[in-house]
Amino acid sequence: MASRKSERLVNLTIALLATRRYLTKSEIFRSIDGYEGELSSMERMFERDKDDLRNLGILIDVRGVDPGFEDEPGYRIHPDTYSLNLGELTGTEIALLSLAAEAWRGAALGESAHSALIKLRSLGIASDFDALPNLSPKVQVNSTSFVPLTRAIGDRSTVTFTYRSAQLNDETRVVNPYGLGSRKGNWYLVGEDQDRKALRTFRLDRIVGGADIISKPGTFQTDPDFHVLTFLDSHLFEPRDVAQLRIRRGRGHALRGEATTLSSDEQFDLCELPYADDERFVDSILWHGDDVIVLRPVALREKVISRLRSLVDSHG
Fold first, then answer.
1. Residues 6+ apart with CB under 8 A from 142
2. Interatomic CA distance for residues 178 and 171, integer angstroms
3. How far is C-alpha 312 from the geometric centre of its chain's CA atoms?
4. Digit-coded pLDDT (tens) for 205-263
5. Nearest Cα to Cα of residue 185 among 241, 249, 257
6. Alpha carbon distance 221, 244 (integer Å)
7. Do the Cβ atoms of 139 and 101 come closer than 8 Å?
8. Domain locations along the chain
9. Could you give the angle at which helices 91-108 and 2-18 cross, rounded to 10 degrees?
10. What DSSP string runs through the chain?
11. For residue 220, what are the β-bridge partners?
């Protein structure tokens, strides 16, 4: 029953997004599978569906089909108001959302949803079906290994890939993948390296040519208490030093999340920010241009200056 209702909600959302005019309830009942029984029963079902969509943050606009007459109200979802209230997401939740996005795109192009729009067209109601896939949530991960690794984690399947080390050496790794997580703008895989017989962390942008699944599902088991983000925070980002920065007011939001503001003037905030990796932190600082000024530690300030000089020498 739950899956049938979910399908009806998806199809209702798609139809109300795709239509170029307001749909009456009778048109909705005729075009969308799942509304059945007596008229009063379908109307109660529709009211519950509207409440469910509203709770998800999807706003249905209601107005008369013909502005010149007080006739039956029509319903439509405007694409520019379409949104989902997702709140703050962890890296794991983002990975799951990417799979849900694929499911949404599949639903938008599926037989049932397609049938609903064909029925609308048969009623003389124009719709913009081609735009629907662009309305689904998307996760931008610049790695061909992301999808196969996500599947392997869910199936508990072993993977192999070529990994480029910090010394720029390409090595073949065989890994039981435990989890994917995003930290400091990078995606990481945590898994049991079969050659080293220990948990290791791999940056996805250093995996060369994607990852291949090489075992059947259920090949390994993970510790039920394992949490990928906790592991990453404890092994990668344990603060080793504290930087004192001047961050221009209203700027540097990527740095402010973990910063403590000490004082402010008309242009800058004086902030303290713990960091673990010098090179990544320098990259983050340079990305903000002249909106961030390093005061201390002196070694960090000198690294930033050195990188800036190298950029000047390279580009004249």
1. 205
2. 20
3. 36
4. 889 988 999 999 999 988 877 888 778 777 765 556 889 999 998 888 778 877 888 99
5. 257
6. 44
7. yes
8. 2-135, 146-223, 241-315
9. 70
10. -HHHHHHHHHHHHHHHHHBSSPEEHHHHHHHSTT--SSHHHHHHHHHHHHHHHHHTT-PPEEEESSTTS---EEEE--GGG------S--HHHHHHHHHHHHHHHHHHTSHHHHHHHHHHHHTT--B-GGGGGGGS-------TTHHHHHHHHHHT--EEEEEE-TTS-EEEEEEEEEEEEEETTEEEEEEEETTTTEEEEEEGGGEEEEEEE-S-TTS----TT--HHHHHHHHT----EEEEEEEETT--HHHHTT-EEEEE-SSEEEEEEEES-HHHHHHHHHHTGGGEEEEE-HHHHHHHHHHHHHHHHHH-
11. none
Instruction: Give me 124's structure tokens.
Output: 């003389």
Q: Which amino acid is at 260?
A: T
How many CA atoms within 13 Å lie on the side-chain side of 244?
A: 7
Q: 80: which 2 tokens?
A: 């520019």
**What are 169-196's pLDDT values in tens digits?**
889 999 999 988 877 667 889 999 998 8
* CA nearest to 180, candidates 216, 138, 144, 152: 152
State the helix-helix crossing angle for 278-287 and 298-315, rounded to 10 degrees: 60
What CA–CA distance (Å, rounded) separates 151 from 154? 5
* CATH 1.10.1410.10 matches 146-223: no
* pTM as predicted: 0.40
